Amino acid sequence: MASFTRLLLLLTALCVFSLSWVPARAATRRFRFNVEWKSVTRLCHTKPLLTVNGQYPGPTIAVHEGDSVEIKVTNSISSNTTLHWHGIRQLRTGWADGPAYITQCPIRAGQTYTYTFQVIDQRGTLWWHSHIFWQRASVNGALIIYPRMPYPFKQPIHAEVPIIFGEWWNSDVDEVEKEMMLSGAGPNVSDAFTINGLPGPLYACSAKDTFIQPVSRGKTYLLRIINAGLNNEMFFAVANHTLTVVEVDATYTKPYATRAIMITPGQTTSVLLTADQIPDSSGMFAMSLGPYVTAPIFPFDNSTAVGFLNYKNKRGEKMSPPLSSTVPLGALLHNLPDVLDTQFATRFCTSLRSLATSKYPCNVPQTIDRRVVSTVGLQLQDCPANRTCTGYDGKRFFSSMNNQSFVRPSTAILQSYYYNRKESGYTTDFSEKPPADFDFTGVSRYQLTWECEVDLGSITYQQEVLRYQLTFTRKV
């Protein structure tokens, strides 16, 4: 009898073990989104903010690898809108991708559209956002794809935390975009950076608007980080803690331990953080977010958002950030690179490697059918006659690919394709390499020198005989 009991217990244990590894069956996940205005206050300013379901950032979409997804979107505002599922491979569902006038006609005021697609051979952290004009400044959210196999991380994960970086303008972002297009200058910089929609105590009136994440000492957390900002590469760090990068853009990477990360607009990076420090009486460690500046002549928001890890996470306890006046600035910004720390950014990017295991191989094509060189640049163009341009040196900023800038056509791409119109300005002769060859990865002709004394720095920008002086102090 005892032997039979032991055998029964063993079989039960095996069944429980095997069941714990059975992936969830593929299913259809349905969501309802309502694009609507909501009154939101930040930095002592209250304004109507475009949101989804009244949330800022928007709701998280969580699905499993292999699931079919249906998102019913109702447009409750007076202007057009679309949504884009950033990073989802739209296999034979290109109409669900979302870029307005490119793959989808916009959702008109008062109308409803249902996006339908399947998540195939993808897992990890992505995000969604509006894809018409600057609506994505506030219309965005996390898109999490849970894998069919266990995570390839050794540490057990205590909790998963979506963290969305953003920008806040006190003014209307539509007006900021219009002014940029008219003037040819860079857009008016944001008034604050945000962590999950909250700027933190270094900004005016914002101590109460601070993201605080409870943690338990000794536990490991998976931070699903998304840069939903419009205009800035960002540095992010947690004081006294190490971040271990395990995934970038929904692709697993070899674990890489670092004091900070650099993340570009639209990018996602998942990191492991172990709460292995001994906190002081506040129980807090700062999470800091600041810009990485690659073009100092372009306007940028030189400020810092701060959130906190809270080791004192007793049930029901109200959490408040420590007053910035009582915490040394160096402690808040510990581990955060300087805004011009290109050496750190380069070292971080070149240290990322594919996981390249049997379960998650690095499938790189071994043969090349055609070689295409594509360079993305920022140029200055002469101001049109009878216009005033406020870009650098009285000119207009223009982005380009292979030295060609985009000109909005008079007829939408979808409409031209549907009616087979050839006269709308669309051609197939885009250059497969830049018109002039030079060392695209070498030192720029725009030589930069950097000197720093405490918080005060100066940059000298030189091109031939042109000199431009820029002096700034990190805003706190």
Automatic annotation (TrEMBL):
Residues 1-26 form the signal peptide. It comes from the Eukaryota. It is found in: Secreted, Extracellular space, Apoplast. The keyword Transcription does not apply. It catalyses: 4 hydroquinone + O2 = 4 benzosemiquinone + 2 H2O. PANTHER family: LACCASE-1, MULTI-COPPER OXIDASE. This is laccase. The lineage of its organism: Eukaryota, Viridiplantae, Streptophyta, Embryophyta, Tracheophyta.
